[in-house]
Amino acid sequence: ISLPLSTLTPVRARDVEQPKKKLTIVSKKDYPLTSNFPYSLEQLQVSYCKLSRVDMRMLSLKALRKLDLSNNHIKKLPATIGDLSCLSELILHNNHLEAFSEALCLSTLQRTLQLLDLSQNRLQSLPAQFCQLRELVNLKLDDNELVCLPFHIGRLAKLRFLSAAHNQLAVLPSDFRKLSLENLDLFGNPFIQPNPLDHTMQLTFPLPLQEMASRAVSNLRIPYGPHLIPAHLCQDLELAKTCDCGRVCISFYIKTAVSMNLHQVSHTVVLVDDMGGTDAPVQQHFCSLSCYSEFLDNSLQRGIR
């Protein structure tokens, strides 16, 4: 009954250890080898640590929103990065990446990823499925070895900032016209000088039955899928090209390049070359010889005027 008790005092907020949400490691000596990363992390930067692969311990951080692995030696990305269901920023600047896998394009990153920095790597191409990352707002592809941009890049409707300077781009995909950007940088690419008379003829007469059927499916918007037709036909249909006339072509077409002022797709444009130009060549496809001939006639008339 007479046992003395100390007076209870409320705990001060600063005395309670808060869950760690941000961690930055910029030295190899500070990299944890025996301990795990805090599971509460929302932002993690690991740079200048000479990592040759993504540490699997990072992939258990389910609250992670930003992952910065810039300035390492990473050659390949594990598909399990796509399991980080909250990830909105992925920064891989200055690594040794040679590919960006289809699996990542088809993962939960489709719904979360808004910023992707793949600059200063060794990428030569991106998969057709790349344009499934439809939440992207900011995409950085500078200083790679890209010879082309994704065929359906116009499907990235939320994209506002695109930089692909210092690559090996000779021409832009026709879908590029559908973009609506705030800032665009394509400086230092070996763009060709477009000439409508320079063309690739990939037509046969008459058209093969498969091409005619595929065109009909696309033009009439008939539903299709691997449960209805072979998977390789679905892939062909995904790469359908739109002719000037509004109809589509699949594997048989005439292809040329036309000049486009990049201000048509972006409010701010970094000059394409040292000469002060803001024009770049864009691919154009024609479903028939008559469509191509009409295009040439119109081009000639514009030239005369």
Automatic annotation (TrEMBL):
SUPFAM superfamilies given in the database record: L domain-like (SSF52058)
Superkingdom of origin organism: Eukaryota
Keyword Repeat applies: yes
Protein's name according to its UniProt entry: Leucine rich repeat protein 1
Transmembrane found in the keyword field: no
Keywords, ordered alphabetically: Leucine-rich repeat, Repeat
GO cellular component, one term: cytoplasm
InterPro entries named in the record: Leu-rich_rpt (IPR001611), Leu-rich_rpt_typical-subtyp (IPR003591), LRR_dom_sf (IPR032675), LRR_domain-containing (IPR050216)
Pfam families with a match to the protein in the record: LRR_1 (PF00560), LRR_8 (PF13855)
Protein species of origin: Seriola dumerili (Greater amberjack)
